[in-house]
Amino acid sequence: SSQLSQFMDHNNPLSELTHKRRLSALGPGGLSRDRAGFEVRDVHYTHYGRMCPVETPEGPNIGLINSLASYARINKYGFIEAPYRVVDKTDKENPRVTDKTIYITADEEDKYVVAQANTELDDEGHFLNKNVSGRYRTETATFPKSRIDLMDVSPRMVFSVATSMIPFLQNDDANRALMGSNMQRQAVPLMTTEAP
Questions:
Q1: Smallest Cα–Cα separation from 66: which of 30, 90, 109, 105?
Q2: Global pTM?
């Protein structure tokens, strides 16, 4: 009866999983397709680690229907949270990346400088380089290691499950990656499965 109540997509296991992780800006209390402009549909920096920048339908729903990122979760208030590794700054000059993980919302993330997941660390978790590539709000730059507060948990945290399944994604054009993410959900399983 509701616009947001749908029968599950039973095409293959991925289509079921993706359907359960779908996010919609439409429906009661949301936007309408015809009135939604470009700004609403576009990728925003707060989507990082929360909503997949690639997986969205083509056509009138583009950017209005999205997919939850691989490691994201929805908190009790309905906000999307992304996980980050905590940086221990007891020694200001030589901070250490711990295994402690915290989930934070986009507005909380604005307070922190976040390092990339593939930043080089030694066995104790100390940064190997003086300057570290990271993000602060809309800015992506190189920061001194003393300024780093958090670190991404994985390079895959940015994308949805379907997008993460594309091999060598970094070499693909964004439009083709979008088509690939969507077409994997249309694959029909064999009656008797066969090893690839």
A1: 30
A2: 0.91
